[in-house]
Amino acid sequence: MLIELSDILSVKDKELDVQADIKMDHFTSKMCDYTIIDKSPLNIHLKNIGKKKFVISLVIDITLIIPCDRCLTDVKHDMNIEVRKEIDMNESDTDKVDIEDEYFYISDNKLDSEALVYNEILVNLPMKVLCSENCKGICNRCGANLNSQTCGCDTTELDPRMSKIRDIFNNFKEV
Ligand SMILES: [Zn+2]
Ligand SMILES: [Zn+2]
Q1: pLDDT digit string, tens, across residues 83-122
Q2: Dist CA 4 CA 109 (whole Å)
Q3: In this prediction, what percent of the chain has a pLDDT beyond 70?
Q4: How much is the pLDDT for 39?
Q5: Binning pLDDT at 50, 70 and 90, where does residue 166 land?
Q6: In angstroms, what is the span from residue 68 Cα to ligand 2's centroid?
Q7: Distance (Å) of CA 117 to CA 125, 130, 143
Q8: Ligand closest to CA 132
Q9: How close is the Cα of 71 to the center of ligand 2, in Å?
Q10: Looking at residue 168, what is its pLDDT?
Q11: For residue 5, what pLDDT is reported?
């Protein structure tokens, strides 16, 4: 949905409330592709706070499926996004490219609600999601999910620092 900003940008103290249904059902970036399984409508409040400046307050709840960082099992991840941000469109006079990069969800005095939500998911995405604190991950030899099965692989790994010490020790023995 495109929200017209002309009044919000030009009329002093102008306020606007908008509710938008978000169509996006995947969050896709260079790094990932997560399914959005649930979302509330997006509630936006806009307010003019001076010449070509305005505030966006937005609220949306989104549930994504993100694979566990260790075992890749699907994990439901709830995001309750509640943001207030000030947008200053004056900067665009000095460096239009930068400002359009930063506010890529605004163009031609229109706010793109889908792009705005995309941006908020992006900045709120966790570094990693685990299915549980104690997730045992997958065996790096056979790929078995070690939370649900055990495998016979020899997974004793030598700490590289330990092997250095062992080398020194072995060299010492040879002398
Ligand atoms: Zn896991
Ligand atoms: Zn294994």
Answers
A1: 999 998 886 555 555 655 678 899 889 999 999 999 999 9
A2: 6
A3: 82
A4: 97
A5: low
A6: 18
A7: 12, 24, 36
A8: 1
A9: 13
A10: 63
A11: 94
Under a CB-based contact definition with an 8 Å cutoff, are residues 119 and 85 in contact?
A: no
How far, CA to CA in Å, does 83 sit from each of 59, 91, 162, 166?
7, 21, 48, 54
pTM equals 0.80
Question: To 10 degrees, the CA torsion angle through 97, 10, 82, 105?
Answer: -30
C-alpha dihedral over 26, 43, 128, 102, to 10 degrees? Answer: 90
Distance (Å) from CA 67 to ligand 2 centroid: 20
Concatenating the DSSP letter of every residue in 92-114 gives GGT-HHHHHHHTTTEETTEEEHH
Residue 149 has what DSSP assignment? -
| Separation of CA 66 and ligand 1 centre (Å) | 11
Amino acid occupying residue 106: I
Q: How far is the CA of 133 from the centre of ligand 1 (A)?
A: 8
CA of 74 to the centre of ligand 1 (A): 8
Q: What is the pLDDT of residue 155?
A: 64
